[in-house]
Amino acid sequence: MTLTPPQPMVKSLLDKLIGPGDTPARFIRRALHVGLRKGLLFQQGIRGVGRLARLLPIQPLGPGIIHSFNAASFGDRDCIVDEHRTLTYDEVDRLINRLVHSLRELGVERGQKLVIMSPNSWQYLVAFFAAIRGGFSAVHASYHLTADELEYIVTHADARVVLFAPDCAEVARQVQRRRANAEANTDILWIATAPLTGDSADDSAGVRHLDEILAGQPETFPTGQRRLRGAHNVVYTSGTTGRPKGAVRNMSDMGLTEALSILERLAFTAGERHLVVCPLYHSGAQVFATLHSGVGSTLVLESKFDPAQTLRDLRDREIDSVFLVPTMIRQILDLPAPFLHSHRPRLRCVISGAAPFPHPLRERAIRYFGNVVYDFFGTTENGWLTLVDSAEMLDRPTTVGRAISGAQIVIVDDDGHPLPPGEVGRVTALSHMVIDGYHQDAEATRESRLGAAHISGDLGYLDSDGYLFLVGRSSDLIISGGVNTYPAEIEQVLVLHPAVRDVAVTGLPDDTWGEIVAAFLVGPGPKDIPNLEAFCRTQLAGFKVPRVWHFLEDLPRNPTGKVLKRQLREQYGAD
Q: How far is Cα 14 from Cα 473, in angstroms, rounded to an integer?
């Protein structure tokens, strides 16, 4: 493997900012170019620069200090807007400081785990950034989890704090009682983001309230040792292939060079309004919330996704940018034509990712939103790797783009040897954003590494110009009669059929062939099978044409839009 590892961490600020393969002169040119073009250099005043100079000896330039830095320059600008409250940068900065001081006073130590379980809210973001500033480790838990699932994460992560919304109180209380009855580690702080009501209020022994622990705490920036050294971000994988794994990212590695790599390729500008509708427990939403906070944007939060309401918000609240997974974009574009026409927003940037973005859907999105649609490829483990804009999507259908600055992508065979352009293999990546590993799972960490590079689990190829094309997950590869078949290739054909609204292809067990190709479709019905087979044969070799067809009302997906193919295989494999 010939990937060049990132430069080692050194004390020099400039060395910290410079990514792999960059030079000081080139980095400074890029930073000045982006800063001028995005308006970043004009919004910071002398007070902001002075605040930055005082903070850098305490924490490195990164997500731990961005709110304090911005508060000094434009403290009265709206920072977070949710359905209950609007907070300025100055108010958010003070809340972050108060929460850090409170948790320290309650005995929470550097590196200990803070589980956050809540729909999108100002409390979620304050807790997330307080964890970074205080040197704690934020653990993100979906608010859809069952008690069993939450208990697994709380136990596996060795949680010290569980911060939960009232909507999640019943599940959180079940886990709290189970641990008490089992005499498990009960040294956990259970904190509700708001006062509990109803039955939850009657059964709230041992639960603190966020407002209660914030009361009377200092609003000054926490001083002392460099708090960020203990800060990690732990995102548990979606669990489509079994028990979720906790991907651990060192937040001290997140700084200006990572933001610069994204900003120089996206149409974001300073001080805009960004809609957060994807759940904040998803790493994509966290990236955009952090990035936009860094450039002084206003984050407008939706607690849940509704396609019509989201479109209204995009127009009526004068939103400039939004991150939507492909399923969300499809649901918006499927709204009635008169509603779409009367509510067309004026956006600077619509970015998608986290799941396959079929080419026909990309074309529909570009026709409706304009040439402001982007797609990216990244994973919880690898961070952000590629980006593709509207023009590139139309010119090279199905590509997920070229690597961003500071990221290296190499396609390797099963033995780890690099493959030439055009050959399908395992996608491996090297960048500052690659995770440290999986929490308490040395074997999974070791299996995911190839030298300093991380193996994403995706299969794909690079063309001669460095554009990446994905053909599916390695776990989804179908081997029928000893021949490899890539589900994504078949899905890209079937989605072009006018009757198909959604599609997933996977392998099902077969006594003769080992596996056979099975298609799961939304839209057509059994009477359309001859037409679907004929349509496939015009573009696919015979062995790739599905042998089994299932017609569903909807495909099972996790909250980030990925199809749960394992669930389809388990449910229909026995047939």
A: 38
